[in-house]
């Protein structure tokens, strides 16, 4: 089924002077999806969001919303609404007045404003707080006021720039779920910017991974994790151990890999074209056993306890360090061993992938 995209980003390039912040980005956003723009600081996420909202003009390329070219359309006439990272609420207005503000600007009748404000506050679970002032609210509640202010205008698309970054870990988790529920109830599309991969993985239907203004990969969370386009994506989405591939035959199922020597891969692990290949092994695809055995010898380093699991650091014979994920029971056993104890790594080669260092 082909749907008209709610937003089409077509070959958008943005330059600030000689600096290229975005380079030839093309993305179609589907109606009703939660779409995440993910990437390290400075990769161009906010710039792209601001271009969609109309606060910046692309140097090249176009933005279409609902099939209509937005080039000549100012921000306040676009069917989108942006929620900024530093939740922009007016400190001198009550919660209800904050939410009503945009509707008053649009000169809607008072009765209609009242109904719409009440509905928006209900959607973000703030009905009882309508008379409070922003300084009488928690960070998460203020964030929800900002959301209600955007929702009340009934945008087709809500643009959220790092919507949860100011919140503590627990509140952030709760708000993630609330945002997803809210999105499902009101049915608007969300485009959210985040540099937090776990937030994107948990919330988004699809994710665009950006790096230095370029689109590295666009896929759903599971595909990004299981089939990263290159080593950058593998490294950015979750943890990964990367080993340089020093020699390979195209089409063969063996490779010579730095620190590991010659290894046999699953037949399915086809080689990508090109040079600069790396072997990517996720920490959960390695098993650690105490003592010597068949497998890769190593010595035990730090065990970073995470509650239900641990990240165990081991050192290979050539000094290279490797991360291994172990469950609580296994890591408790490992913690009994002395640091520097001999251990053996069993790598599940069927899960290892050979990737290009960069898909660009
Ligand atoms: N008005 C501007 N003039 C010059 N350079 C700019 C301007 N706005 C953004 N940039 C540059 O463009 C790049 C992308 O900026 P942007 O704000 O989009 O990054 P970001 O991905 O949102 O990063 P962060 O995660 O830190 O918020 C940065 O290098 C930034 O310095
Ligand atoms: Mg930003």
* CATH class categorisation of the largest domain: Alpha Beta
Shape: globular
Average pLDDT level? 90
Order of helices and strands: EEEHEEEHHHEHEHEEHHEEEEEEEEHEE
Task: Report a brief summary of the structure.
This protein has 360 residues and is α+β, with helices and mostly antiparallel strands.
Task: Describe the secondary structure blueprint for this structure.
Blueprint: E1 7-16, E2 19-29, E3 34-38, H1 45-53, E4 60-65, E5 68-69, E6 80-83, H2 95-105, H3 110-123, H4 139-151, E7 157-161, H5 169-186, E8 189-194, H6 197-203, E9 206-211, E10 214-219, H7 221-226, H8 231-236, E11 241-248, E12 254-257, E13 261-264, E14 277-281, E15 286-290, E16 296-305, E17 309-316, E18 321-327, H9 328-336, E19 342-347, E20 353-356
Helix pairs in contact: 2-3, 2-4, 3-4
The structure holds adenosine-5'-triphosphate and magnesium ion.
